[in-house]
Amino acid sequence: MNDFSYDILDLLKKYDHDTNAALAGENCPQCLYAFSPLRENLFEWVEFEPDARILQIGSDYGSFTGILAERVKEVVVLDPRDENLEVNRIRHGERENVIYVRGDLRDQVQWKVYKPKLEADAKEIMCQPFDYIILGGFLMECKKEEAIGLLREAADYLKPGGVMLAAVENETGVRYWMGAPKQENSYLEPEFRSLFEELKKTWGGNFTMYYPVPDYRYPVAVYSDHYLPETGDVTNISKRYDGPGFWFGSEEEAMAKACQNGMFTKFNNSFLGVWEKGTK
Length: 280
Hints:
By secondary structure, the protein is α/β, with parallel strands linked by helices. Helix content is 35%, strand content 20%. α1 (5-14) packs parallel to α6 and α8 packs parallel to α10. It starts with a helix and ends with a strand. The model has no long low-confidence stretch (mean pLDDT 90).
């Protein structure tokens, strides 16, 4: 996934940091991806503990940071890109419970607290165990062969009983059968499940797969292994929020058939994995 932080910084400057005004005045997909309130729906339903600490891996233009900061005691945002952290800081920097750290999870030497709290010790902040770790779309930026290594590294920073949430695109999502271009580093369902099965081998715990509809970027509903949609429940998914429509068929009709035949999980456009770390 390409980074367009400088474009978003220009928009924030143009609209005096008013994201609603930017959404009303612009029609570029970058603006929608960064500022759409639909993006918060991916985690809006999660019952976070109020006194929790969250590690958000990948700044993602601050799309999730605001709702996370409203729910918990502290949010630490880790990202290797100054410009993406700056977008997030402009949007949420007034929140006292948000800390920005520049760096890569796998390179402690390079960790540095990003302004405005430059005096803080990044390693001390990062090495306190977290109750939740969020990877909103960061796995889509990593090569698939690197994913399990990243998740293992992240698991080391998670408290026993803590929860990790990670979202990716489904390689066999219905939108691709209708002609949409494939997203790089998307996953087959068994591939994605296997990542968390590997974590369970080391740390135990429980795993549940969730299914954001129409996808993890702009979800309007989130189903799970324990609550799957029935025929006709998945509607209005042909609308393209960030690109043109594709007319090789009806996504709604295709998903209705998938639900009818017990194949919804194979053809939904995205996955959200939720793993609770074991206590062993």
